[in-house]
Design brief:
Elements lengths: L3 H8 L4 H7 L16 E9 L2 E9 H5 L8 H14 L2 H5 L7 E9 L9 E5 L8 E5 L1 E10 L7 E3 L1 H6 L5 E8 L2 E7 L5 E3 L1
Parallel strand pairs: 1-8
Antiparallel strand pairs: 1-2, 2-6, 3-6, 4-5, 7-10, 8-9
């Protein structure tokens, strides 16, 4: 069950962000939410002392594959990625002055064995042949309580990019007391200002 704090506000964000990012970019499935290797999405909402972060990424970005982990090497990659994702205070580098503590976190992925894979059908390839391919995603949801939310001036994603180097871009949507914003972060520009 997704908390309402993130579910409703992001449904209401202006379409200008989506339109601005789709102009000139035809995504595989034709929408901002399309499964695109190298690209992850992060929704962030700050309401009072509650900060919620929701990360969605193709498994390829985090573990290097999307199929079920059957080999020992693949299982080790999944376990390693999960271990990193289970440390959100390290992964997101929240300012210490904000006094944020993790109050809830959920990790979901077919690779973790807790949710069926989403199979997206590709109608045809370059030769016009129909084929199918599974796209596994990893979803991480975090809720923090921050004793001094006014100290949340930025969110540093450098550790996330460093931990998962196949992630080349993170599309961020933020709702905070100062308003709404959408921004693309990269390894070279990895700080979101609130």
């Amino acid at each position: 069950m997704r908390p309402l704090l993130l579910a409703l506000p992001f449904a209401l964000l202006p379409l200008t962000y989506a339109q601005a990012h789709e102009e000139g970019h035809e995504h595989e499935h034709g929408s901002l939410g399309a499964h695109e290797h190298g690209v992850a999405r992060l929704n962030a909402a700050l309401d009072g002392q509650t900060l919620e972060l929701e990360l969605q990424s193709p498994a390829m970005n985090l573990v290097g594959f999307e199929h079920a982990a059957t080999s020992d090497a693949d299982k080790a990659k999944v376990a390693s990625a999960r271990q990193v994702l289970e440390q959100p205070l390290t992964l997101f580098k929240l300012p210490a002055a904000a006094g944020c503590k993790v109050t809830d976190q959920e990790l979901e992925s077919p690779l973790f064995g807790d949710k069926p894979a989403h199979a997206h059908k590709h109608d045809h390839d370059e030769d016009g042949d129909e084929h199918h391919h599974e796209h596994s995603e990893i979803h991480a949801h975090y809720q923090f309580t921050c004793t001094t939310p006014a100290s949340l001036q930025h969110l540093d994603l450098a550790q996330l990019f460093g931990s998962f180097p196949a992630t080349q871009k993170i599309q961020v949507q933020l709702i905070s007391p100062s308003g709404q914003q959408g921004v693309d972060l990269t390894p070279a520009n990895s700080t979101l200002k609130f």
